[in-house]
What we know:
The chain is built from one helix and no strands. By secondary structure, the protein is mostly helical. The model has no long low-confidence stretch (mean pLDDT 89).
Amino acid sequence: MKIADLKRDIGERFEQVNERFEQVNVRFESVDARFDRLETAVVTGLETTRRHMDVLIEQLRADARLWLEGFDLRQQQIDALLSSNTHEHAAFVEMLRDHEVRIKTLERPSRAPKTPRSR
C-alpha cells in the first residue's frame, strides 16, 4: 500500500467518523430538545402541584380553626355544666343534711313511754 492510498484511506475514515459525529450531534440536539420539554413539563407540574398543595393546606388550616373553635365552645359548655353541677350538688347535700336532722328528730325516743293505742 502506497502512502497516497493510505492517506486517501485515512481521509475516507475521517469522513466516515465526521458523518457519524454529525449524526450524533443531530441526535444530541433531539435529546436536548426532549430534555427541555421535559424540564418545562416538570417545572409546570411542580408549580401546579405547589398551588394545589397551598389550597389544600389553607383548607386544612380553616378546618383546624373550626375544629378548635368548636372544641373551645364545648369546653366552655362543659365548664358551665360542671359549675352548675357543683352548685346543685352543694344544695342537694345541704337538703340531705336537713332531712337527716328532721328524721333523727322524729325518730328520737320521747321521754314518756308511749302506750299502744287500742283499736
